[in-house]
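User: Design a sequence. Structure:
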């Protein structure tokens, strides 16, 4: 769950939806690993027209993918954009 400052629209707060922990944000920049989930469900979904957003800290992300039957696809990124 993300909050932004009203005046400048700067990222002010990120809370993990899984465990409720507040992640480290400094000067509008998220300073730790976070999974940002965002999905708009369309016509073929029972949730048609809904947008779902959530954030997970690394611990909660690891727990989520540990339940997958098929592991996530991993690729090495040469350039990280933070
Ligand atoms: Zn968490």
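Assistant: Done.
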């Amino acid at each position: 769950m993300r909050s932004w400052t009203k005046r400048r629209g700067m990222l002010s707060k990120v809370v993990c939806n899984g465990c409720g922990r507040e992640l480290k944000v400094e000067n509008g920049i998220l300073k730790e690993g976070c999974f940002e989930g965002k999905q708009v469900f369309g016509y073929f979904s029972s949730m048609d027209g809904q947008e779902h957003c959530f954030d997970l800290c690394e611990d909660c992300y690891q727990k989520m993918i540990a339940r997958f039957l098929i592991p996530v696809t991993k690729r090495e990124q040469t350039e990280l954009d933070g």
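The radius of gyration is 15 Å. Residues 16, 18-19, 21, 56-57, 59-60 surround zinc ion (CB under 6 Å).
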